[in-house]
Amino acid sequence: MLFNSYLFVLAFLPVVLAAWWLLPLRSEQRLATLAGASYVFYGLWDWRFTGLLAASTLLDYAIGKRLHAATTSGGRKRWMLASVSLNLGVLAVFKYAGFAASSFNSVAAWLQSGGRLPVWDIVLPVGISFYTFQTMSYATDIYRREAKPASSIWHFAAYVSMFPQLVAGPIVRYADVDAQLKSATRRIDWNQFASGVRFFVAGMAQKVLLADLMASRIAPLWEEPAQLQLVGAWFAMLGYAVQLYFDFAGYSNMAVGLGRMLGFEFCQNFDSPYQSESIQAFWRRWHMSLGRMLRDYLFIPLGGNRGGAILTVRNLLAVMLLGGLWHGAGWTFVLWGAYHGALLAVNALWRIGGGFTLPRSVAQAATFLAVVGGWVLFRAASLQEAGDVYGAMLGARGVEGEPLAAVGGVAAAAVLAALLSATWFLPNLWRIPERLNAWSGALAAAVLTLCLLRFDSASPFLYFQF
User: Fold this and answer.
1) Using an 8 Å Cβ cutoff, are 42 and 167 in contact?
2) Cβ pair 126, 167 in contact under 8 A
3) What is the spatial distance between Cα 265 and Cα 191, in angstroms, rounded to a whole number?
4) How many CB atoms are located within 10 Å of the residue 403 CB?
5) Which residues touch 13 (CB under 8 Å, ≥6 apart)?
6) Model confidence at 436, in pLDDT bands (50, 70, 90)?
7) Which of 230, 294, 340, 464 has a CB 3.0–4.6 Å from the CB of 395, allowing a cystine?
8) Do 240 and 379 meet the contact criterion of CB atoms below 8 Å apart?
9) Active site residue: 155, 287, 327, 340, which one?
């Protein structure tokens, strides 16, 4: 079920909010209701994978209890290893087995070897990378003595499956919502609820009115990337940068808004990343919850930046390679992760070496262009396609701009320029003062109505594929 669908906005959400706030339920019953609603939400994508979500929840809940009860270091390590093995095993089967087998077969063919592995065609469960990361972080925090196990299975099930952030984040640590889950019987805070509505509607507008609009404009250019020339290639990539920006910003704001309507505060996940003045700043502002997870559970345990320049570079490359693989099982994502790891390494070495500081506008422009260069790998369906786009962006097939006629010509270029300017200069929703008054309520209603009129052409969020 999509957030940007009639079923969700006009049926599912009103029923869930009514059940959550109006029924005289105790805390456990309320959390069970939330978990049940979240399973319905998830099951409407593909009911077959609700069993996988339930199994992951039950196993890590049980492991968390065992971890907390273990009295020896060896026992705690064994249970921690069990959690990591189970979660990574699930990802290996559903997300990476086909990629590994096809890569092995490609190498075998190149070596003219007779050995081949079967390539499984398995449907990727929606949100699997997100909820496995959450359940694994839960076990890790208990292992580190940074969190206590959930007080009941309903607390943990609600945490893992909570529909506002189940399929694409933000990735929430259990310790950050534990107290909120335990106070699930509190009364409605109308200011928080109104803020949630504002975030939800604004996020929907970013997705439906901006991201999907740009997606429709650049789609013809991506049908034959091998035919792109310089102007068309740059339009396709800048357009994709805008589409991805508003698509992910929209989802992040809608998730926060839904959480607030239910009385939960989720962490900020998006902070105007195209206004960053370095690649390090970009990763502090893009998919912020993932960045924190990679930092806390991979980069710092590997040694962080404490071992000197060489180890810092090694750790950055390792973490970003894994970050690329987390996004997708494909060589384009591996190279995208390596690319960002290399950029972060250069950034770190520049800082360690005391390199000069660029003017703010120059630093922002350079960072943005570096990010767009990476988006080629992120968007391309194959390395061949990525190579075609890179070549076109460098003028390998000429400079003509005829393809722009297919996407709206000058008018489309003007829209692209306006949206790019918005990503560079306008404040994001978190920085706009929250004032609930007549005009803002009327504006939200008007925007929601406009979005509803465009639901027939709505598309899934881009991050749902991960």
Assistant:
1) yes
2) yes
3) 13
4) 18
5) 258
6) very low
7) 230
8) yes
9) 327
Question: Under 8 Å CB-to-CB from 81, ≥6 apart: which residues?
Answer: none
Which residues, 6 or more positions from 234, have their beta carbon under 8 angstroms from its beta carbon? Answer: 393
pLDDT at position 281: 95
Flag whether pLDDT at 403 surpasses 80. Answer: no
Beta-bridged to residue 286, according to DSSP, are 270
Please say whether the beta carbons of 48 and 62 come within 8 A.
no
Yes or no: say if 229 and 392 are a contact pair by the CB < 8 Å rule: yes
CB-based burial label for 379 (10 Å; 0-12, 13-18, 19+): buried
Structure tokens at 387: 């190579």
Q: What are the residue ranges spanned by the domains of the chain?
A: 26-184, 191-465
Nearest-angstrom CA–CA distance, 133 and 54: 15
Concerning whether 327 is annotated as a catalytic residue, the answer is yes
Strands (E) across 54-121 are located at: none
Determine if the pTM surpasses 0.70: yes
Q: Would you say residue 279 has pLDDT above 90? A: yes
Q: Show the CA angle centred on residue 389, arms to residues 386 and 391, nearest 5°.
A: 110
Tokens 């890790």 appear where?
140
Query: Smallest Cα–Cα separation from 405: which of 266, 239, 221?
Result: 221
Alpha helix ranges (H) inside 46-186: 50-69, 73-91, 97-110, 128-143, 153-161, 174-182
Give the residue among 1, 12, 4 at the shortest CA–CA distance from 250: 4
Residue 202 pLDDT more than 50? yes
Residue with token string 């390494």: 345
Name all contacts of 279-287 with Cβ < 8 Å and 24+ positions apart: 279/340, 279/343, 279/344, 279/346, 279/347, 279/367, 279/370, 279/371, 280/344, 280/347, 280/348, 281/367, 282/367, 282/371, 283/340, 283/344, 286/248, 287/169, 287/248
In Å, what is the CA distance from 172 to each residue of 96, 197, 222, 322? 24, 21, 34, 19
CA 428 to chain centre: 17
